[in-house]
Amino acid sequence: xxxxxxxxxxxxxxxxxxxxxxxxxxxxxxxxxxxxxxxxxxxxxxxxxxxxxxxxxxxxxxxxxxxxxxxxxxxxxxxxxxxxxxxxxxxxxxxxxxxxxxxxxxxxxxxxxxxxxxxxxxxxxxxxxxxxxxxxxxxxxxxxxxxxxxxxxxxxxxxxxxxxxxxxxxxxxxxxxxxxxxxxxxxxxxxxxxxxxxxxxxxxxxxxxxxxxxxxxxxxxxxxxxxxxxxxxxxxxxxxxxxxxxxxxxxxxxxxxxxxxxxxxxxxxxxxxxxxxxxxxxxxxxxxxxxxxxxxxxxxxxxxxxxxxxxxxxxxxxxxxxxxxxxxxxxxxxxxxxxxxxxxxxxxxxxxxxxxxxxxxxxxxxxxxxxxxxxxxxxxxxxxxxxxxxxxxxx
Length: 395
Prior knowledge:
Mean pLDDT: 94
Strand content: 15-25%
Shape: elongated
């Protein structure tokens, strides 16, 4: 697979697929610029060499065609500030307006196309739609790692119609750091896996059991493990159809000499609310009408000790309902432990999604080794699955 440094972009129009699927507040103002900032080096590489850029991305999940709250025009102020140059906006991603702006694009200029998901053809991987996009540029660059696991028109199908195509800097970094963790980790290697459902993480847990020294389980998925072992979890999240599987995982960990760590205690609530009554109980001792929403202080202490002694750390998934401030303590403590380990020389990869949001919201994004821009894509890559957006660049 060729990367962006294999090309000189002088006098060339690059059709650049980026991932500007960023969060907006009720005033339609960007609240997290991480993905925008990450794309800047690739854009500047093309511009600085005398090329021009046609940016395309999706934003959200519009289901009824164009909707203003999903318009990419809302990110232009942030993009222009980060780039230091004007970004022209096309009110569509195909059609006469996009075509005319593309043809008139001069050296060092940038246009941003409207949300490609305003067309159902995008997610359907429609070939005719991809051809219309392909006509806008002369070289295709994919830097949207977060969507590389989707065979959509702008991420995969469009690449078929370019002789010159390559990966951008984000794509290259994501693969390099994922491979470093999977193939050449310094030990001890600790994976921290959280989130709501174990069914979402089965494949990655299976993969990690052959790689890690320590596997820390937190978040909603931990209650399935605890209930499977006979513990009382009250109204906590649980996938009853996965209980037997969790017991198998525990046995596999023993056979593979992996230290599988479950929470020792939990912060529980009498309602799914930030303002609910709280108390701390030992794991497996949650009253029937209460639910676990975070890990407790004993769990934090135990997990911190493991993390701080680790030389390689992979973190994917929060330890609790971190959206509620009163139940974010566990996730914040894990983030601080990962930062501390990194500052002491460990390599830390934050696996996108909620973990990335937690790290960035705490202002720790530049205090860990790498924050992935793609949660689902990273997991699928680490599971060993073929990512269509990558495979098409290798042909």
